[in-house]
Amino acid sequence: MGSLTPSPKPWIETPLIESSALSKAAGCRIFLKLENLQPSGSFKSRGIGALLLHSLLTRPSPQQVHFYCSSGGNAGLACVTAAKTLDRFATIVVPFSTKPLMIAKLKNAGAYEVVQAGDNWKEADTYLREELLNKDEGGVYVPPFDDPEIWEGHSTLVKEVSAQLKDKGEDGADAMVCSVGGGGLLCGVLLGLERESWGKSCAVLALETKGADSLNKALTSGQLVTLPGITSIATSLGATCVAQKALELAQNRGVTSSVLSDAEAAMGCWRLADDERIIVEAACGLNVAVCYDGRLKKLLPELTPQSKVVIVVCGGSNVTLQTLMTYRKEYGWIEGTTTDDQEVPSTLSAPTNGADGFSNQWGWMDGDEWHDQDE
Questions:
Q1: Positive or negative, the Cα torsion across 258, 263, 265, 270?
Q2: What is the phi/psi pair of residue 277, to 5°?
Q3: Who contacts 171 (Cβ-Cβ below 8 Å, separation ≥6)?
C-alpha cells in the first residue's frame, strides 16, 4: 500500500427523488433517498467509511493500518470498499455458514483476505480478535454499527436531504423512515435531525421485522433486550441487541417504532422493483412496504396529502433476481387486500393467488454460460 495522501470520501452524495407511484400509493409525498447507490451498495458506506477515514487521520502510523471486520454482510462490504478507496487493506472474517455469494462479493470488492471461522458471528468475531487483530500492530477493528464515528458518518445523510429538499424549494421533511438492525443508521438520522432547523418537528418511523425486533422490544421494556436469535428473512437486521445509544436517542426523541412481518418486507422488495426499477433486500423492503395499503397513515396519522416523507432506501447486497422471484411466489398472498389505485404500476403487476408472475424462459442460460466462481 502507498503512503497516506488526501483521500476522497469513501461515500458519495446519493440522489433524493420524489416517487410518483409511491406517493399515489401512500397518499402523501414520498421521497426516496437512494443509499442503494453507495459504492458498497448500502448506506453503510457512510458510517463505516467515516470510521476508516477517522482512523487514518488519527493513527500515528496510518501507512501501517490494516482493517479487520467480522461481517459477511453489508458492513463487511462497506469496510472492503472503503478500505480500497483509501488505499488500505481489509481482512474480513465470516462464519462457515456465510453464503458463497457473499464471499464472492467480498473478494470481488477487493478484500485482502476472506477468512472463514466459527459456526456463528460471535465465534468468527472471537477468532478475528484473538488470532488476527491481536497479532497485527497496525490492525484496526471495524464494528458494524456501535461506534460514534459510524453514527456521525450516517448523520451526513440528513444534511444531504436538507440541502436537496432546499434545492427543490422545500423546507425540510415532515417524516423520515428507516429500518433498524443494530441502530447505527437510526443514531445517525436522529443526530442529524438535531442539527436541522426543521428536525425537531420531523417524525421518525423506525421499522423492524418480527424476529429481528430488538429495538421495539427494548422500547417496550424500557431497557436493552437481547433476542435469543434472529428468525426473520431480513438477516441484515440481525442484531440481537441494539446499541445503547440507539435506545437512548429513540426514547428521548419519541420515535415511532413498528414491527412488520416478513411477508410485508418481501412485498416491499418486489413492489419497489415494479414501481421504481430498484432492487433491494428485505431489510430495506420493509421501509417501502409501509407506503402500501394505508400502513403509513395508520402509523403516522398526522400525515396529509402534502406531507413530505423521506424513506431511506438503505440498499443491501443480499438480494438476487431469484430472491425476488421467491418472495413474490411465497408471499404473494399478502396482496389480497392491496391498494386498488390503478395508477400504481405494482397494483397491476401484483400476483394473483400467489402466482410468481415471473417467466423462467431464459433461466437455463445460467447453467451453460456462467462458471466464474469469483463473480
A1: negative
A2: 60, 40
A3: 165, 198
